[in-house]
Amino acid sequence: MNKKQITILTDRVEKEFLPFVRKPSRYIGGEINQIKKNLSKCDLTVALCFPDVYEVAMSYQGLAILYHIINKMQDAAAERVFAPWIDAEKVLRDKQIPLFSLESKTPLKDFDIVGFSLTNELCYTNVLNMLDLGGVDIRSEARGENDPLIIAGGSMANCCEPMADFIDLFVLGEAEDAVIELIQLIKAQKKTGATKKEVLLLAAKRFDWLYVPTLYKFDSETAKSPQPISPDLPTQLKNAVVEDFESAPVPLAPIVPFTQAIHERVSVEIMRGCPGRCRFCQASFCRRPVRCRSLEKITDIAKTCYHATGFDTVSLLSLSTADYPKLEELVTRLHEYFRDKHVGLSLPSLRVDRQLKLIPLLVVPVRKSGLTIAVEAAGEKLRQIINKPLKDEDLFAAVEAAYRAGWQKLKLYFMVGLPGETQQGIMQIVDLSSQLAQLRKKVDGRTAKINITISWFVPKPHTPFAWLAQKPKEYFQKAKRLILDEKRKLHAKSLRFKFHDINRSVLESAVGRGDRRLCSVIEAAWQAGAKFDLWDECFDYEIWKKAFKKFGINTDAAAQIEFAADDTLPWQHLGGPHKKSLLIHLDKAMAETKC
Predict the structure, then answer these.
(1) Cα 464 from chain centre
(2) Based on C-alpha coordinates, what's the Rg of the chain?
(3) Which residues have a Cβ under 8 Å from the Cβ of 8 and sit 6 or more positions away?
(4) Residue 330 · residue 360 · CB < 8 Å
(5) What CA–CA distance (Å, rounded) separates 44 from 146?
(6) Is 177 within 8 Å of 245 (Cβ atoms)?
(7) pLDDT exceeding 90 applies to what percent of the chain?
(8) Looking at beta carbons, which pairs linking 206-209 to residues 24 or more positions away fall under 8 Å?
(9) Per-residue model confidence (pLDDT) at position 351
(10) Using CA of residue 568, residue 213, residue 42, residue 118, what is the dihedral sign?
(11) In the predicted model, is pLDDT for residue 365 greater than 60?
């Protein structure tokens, strides 16, 4: 790996770019708590990329942690690069300005490492677009020694074959310890003059949580079972795990955005992993074991971050906040410190059966704009099938307690298309929501306003339901009609339904469970203009249908593929739980559908 020449684009950005974009605050950098080093004096430079706009990227805690870890190293530097919005991309292309970092305005191609956080299947076209805008070839085979090493991590790394042709290496699992080990190896090899291929081979042999796609060949007919080109490479990769979560690095001075982010708050991860096993949830099966931070550590982090930022909300993060062993004591302790500072507490992912005791503790500090509950299924039997055993009596008791504590609005999440679902169960979503709205009358005589979000079930890799076919598009369309007809029938004007885009959910299933052959499909979609596929104003399903068709694949058929128990799955080698344990869960779920 060669020593890179650093170009600084500050003058061009200020004169030729910023005056011509709608939201310059997305691109200027220089925020409070930003870290800026002299890149030319660092042994290794890293561009931390998030394939979405500034407001979304700045809300992602994983990127903030990596930024903190790398910049703590004296001889390494990390800077941020986010996807430019449509207007900004046009300016960059028209004026031939390469995509640049926020801190020093350095082009993407001038960094030693370009790292992407992959959190959703529908961000892949943005990855290609950012590489292209940054002056980097999108395919790894076309890049040379002077090009940066392209790395990707995040939840999608565990099912990354559809991006295998574009990324040099994937980090599987948790990155805090892994990124330090990887950077130390790359720095050491860079000093010896090792080539990029030599670095990749050594890293792949040393770390069983690191996947280098070019070192694995696959059957071009099935593309499901990549085989290592060398006998000393692992055939089954593992997820990196942070053993000492209590002492894991935490950014104590988070960057304060110039423009409002999606989540603008102090975020403290209190627990990693989830004791539950919702059979549709990839994170609950892939992020193991369960580890908790101490009360003292969490409180210290919250206080320090608050004083470094001035944010008016502290959010306690985990996959299942209610399962933190000392949650009541933690909430009480934080309440005592923050109540006179007008700082609210946000507790996402609460289970309603454990929420009752907490609601009175939250009365004073929290601005009660709305309470969110992920119910997932309207009936107890279906909840049992998906392994989320929530009782109706607990749900009603929790919501009534929330109304009595001052909450006036409620937000519910349901999923349609689950195994064992019935037409009656779909309509029951409206009936249950209506009952919860009417429940407020017991408190103040009024009907509550309830926002209900309906998502369409997407089978996820590394879950028990990964073997199942997604329901046909027509099924979801009929379900939507049933829900709206039932709302009219009940005259439920207090209920407001929001439905996920069906085509987007179909695409998510088709791409998410795909294999390496989808690389060409993704590239064709990007070349045809696909980008920001998670945004309604940009998503164009017809582009994707044509891209799939170009390579002889039917999008709907790809989404509805059903795997046999003995099939080799496209993601089977990429970390995650053992196949046998997932199939036991699947068998139990299928048995429960027949009860």
Answers:
(1) 20
(2) 24
(3) 104, 105, 106
(4) no
(5) 14
(6) no
(7) 80
(8) 207/178, 207/181, 207/182, 207/240, 208/234, 208/237, 208/238, 209/171, 209/172, 209/173, 209/178, 209/237, 209/238, 209/239, 209/240, 209/575
(9) 61
(10) negative
(11) no
The pLDDT tens digits for 218-237 are 876 665 678 899 889 999 99
| Look-up of token digits 């009024």 | 446
Res. 502: pLDDT tops 90: yes
Is there a shared CATH topology between the 10-228 domain and the 368-508+582-595 domain?
no
219 touches 225 (CB < 8 A): yes
Question: pLDDT band for position 366 (50/70/90)?
Answer: very low
Between CA 211 and CA 223 the distance in angstroms is 16
- The yes-or-no verdict on residue 11 having pLDDT over 70 is yes
Q: For residue 578, give every residue at least 6 positions away whose Cβ sits within 8 Å of its Cβ, in sequence order, or none.
A: none
Q: Show the tokens assigned to 314.
A: 């502290």
Residue 364's pLDDT is 42
What tens digit of pLDDT does each residue of 340-350 get? 888 888 777 66
- Gap between the Cα atoms of 590 and 28, Å rounded: 53
What is the sign, positive or negative, of the torsion defined by CA atoms of 571, 178, 277, 475? negative
Confidence of residue 353 (pLDDT cuts 50, 70, 90): low
The pLDDT tens digits for 399-424 are: 888 888 777 778 899 999 999 999 99
DSSP string, 98-166: PPB-TTT--BGGGSSEEEEE---GGGHHHHHHHHHHTT--SSGGG--TTSPEEEEESGGGGG-GGGTTT
Nearest to 354 by CA among 377, 330, 320, 379: 320
Q: State which H helix or E strand residue 94 sits in.
A: helix 86-94
- Average pLDDT across the chain, whole number: 92
pLDDT of residue 139: 98
Phi and psi for 116 in degrees, rounded to 5?
Answer: -110, 140
CA distance 475 to 454: 14
Rounded Cα gap, residues 20 and 107, in angstroms: 19
**Among residues of the chain, what percentage have pLDDT more than 70?**
95
> Does the structural domain 368-508+582-595 have CATH classification 3.30.750.200?
yes
CATH topology of domain 10-228: Rossmann fold (3.40.50)
Encoded amino acid at 284, one letter: S
Beta bridge pairs of residue 114: 47, 150
Cα–Cα distance measured from residue 174 to residue 293, given in angstroms and rounded to the nearest whole number: 16
Task: Considering only the C-alpha atoms of the chain, give the largest distance between any 2 of them, rounded to a whole number of Å.
Answer: 75
Model confidence at 363, pLDDT cuts 50, 70, 90, reads very low
**Do 130 and 51 form a contact (C-beta atoms < 8 A)?**
yes
